[in-house]
Amino acid sequence: MIARSWARSQQYGLSPGDRVLFDSPVVVRPKDIADHGGLLLRAASPEMEQLHGALAPKDWVLACIDMEGVVLNSIGKCNSASQELNQVFRPGALFLETQVGTTGPSCALEERETVIVAGSDHYLEEAHAFTCMATPIFGLDGGIVGVLDASRKGPVTSLYCLESLVIAARAIERRMFMELGNVLLVHLHFRLDILGTPMEGLLAFDQAGKLQGANRIGQQIFSTPGLKPGMDFSELFDMPFAHAACYRRYDLSVPFRMQTQWGSQLYACLTAAPDKKPGQAPVPARQFVTAERRPISPQGPCLEDPVVQSALERARKAFARDIPVLINGETGTGKEVFARLLHEGSARASGPFVAINCSSIPASLIESELFGHVEGAFTGSRKGGAVGKIEQAHQGTLFLDEIGDMPLELQGRLLRVLQERSLSRLGSTAVIKVDCALICATHRDLAQLSQEQGFREDLYYRINGLRVVLPALRERADLALLINRILQNETAAHAPLALEDSALQALLSYSWPGNIRQLHQTLRLAAALAEDEGWIGLRHLPDDVVPATAKASASETQPIPVSAPQFLAGDTLLASEQRAIRAAIEACQGNLSAAARSLGIGRATLYRKLKAMEKE
Ligand SMILES: Nc1ncnc2c1ncn2[C@@H]1O[C@H](COP(=O)(O)OP(=O)(O)OP(=O)(O)O)[C@@H](O)[C@H]1O
Q1: Which residue has a Cα nearest atom 16 of ligand 1?
Q2: Could you report the predicted ipTM of this complex, rounded to two decimals?
């Protein structure tokens, strides 16, 4: 590469003794720099700052140079070691081979490769005391848009600097994608641990699912058949764009398995680059990290569904005026969670939230549970008596779950308490004032129940200040996000897990009679079963979600095909097993989980065998 560059330098009529770098550098007018810079300059500046802080020794001068050889930006310490270089790399200086011969940036621009030009590798003798490393930066169409250079007086002290430079260049490319605005970004790689790093592949699609750009790694991943601008999403992936767009809405950041139209299995995450107004500050590269690197903390309830959101908004307003809220919804739709949210968002948040499930307490005990009792009020009463739930909720919120199951005879007493805001404990005539807000919940239709005389009509109107209906899980628009949220929580203490696309599809299309509670259980089980494999597939979902027949046919197509290892004459059983392991890992491109799956063994077993092989 250096020899080729020297030959070109000679052809340009330069001679090694020329002094052009330090004495009379060619500089374009500063005004032109902004015209040249644009997107590249905005994307490069923050990454250069970060890189400069990380490099040692501290006398490196970093420069971002566009494809026309113009220095857009440079950073260096103002010390004697970097002074000369700061001058050479000042914004506007030109670094084309035609002007300066062989240097790191001019050679990298020409060759489109990373290069180290040290000492006498430089064509011009005046640069022989310096070393420069330069790496190309590729744009949205995979073509070169500039180079990132690091130069210093003296030699390179470690290869770590070069590695950091290359990673910074990838990060700049990533930022340029984030700046695109109003696109769906597909982050992908064969390896889960690469996802979310500057080494991931990136593809950008517009609203119609047409390819807008792909970074260099994305281009490499799709080198056959090759990417062309405007290609349709469905030409590349075995998934409809509408489905991917649904992820976009929910920003599903749990990586999942995606299959290309050529049968390759990839890990992918999807994000949306937000709309950008011209001149707006650069959007920082999204913290779009893999499950391994993301600090997973239990998150709050998922409330992105518009019906839930609007219900919460209305209920909050009513509750703020002490209007009782009645929550309707199938079992497990989150009625208690909703009630707690109301309480916690209200002026009573510092008071108690007292919940009682009217269907789970025997009718004979409900009365004393609710109203409390004095000692000796009935056989078996507690010594010293007991404070009832209503009294406990004083200055807070009383949540009566499954109120439709409250015995009729108690309904009248509850109504009196609500009207008079006072009660007497069982066995006592003393009146106790209670001030509490009321939230009731039921899966039953109370209007109909009261028509059938199963519920007091006057109580129904008393508790029904505002009625909200929580949607069943199968009706929720934020189901994908809920799955993501629950899975993150479930895997928080264990190895991270990705979700295969087929498994996600199955979860999204199931009708969930048990609602969120059932979804929780399903994901908990799947996470436990898939722990060794790295991702959740159809086979980890219970039979009621995915019928056994569907699992069987899926499992025939799932494993990544690995050519059967040849049993060579003279091989021991152990040797042929080791050959099989190596072949599987190679076929799965280093993905140990996939290799274990294709071998029909658990990941832990594969690790054990690899350890044993290492020791030999
Ligand atoms: N918005 C939400 N986001 C995440 N998890 C939720 C959400 N709502 C409810 N859950 C979870 O779903 C489960 C059931 O919730 P909850 O007990 O509130 O439902 P419910 O409708 O009151 O049930 P039931 O009818 O049996 O009383 C709980 O584990 C809860 O943590």
Answers
A1: 334
A2: 0.98
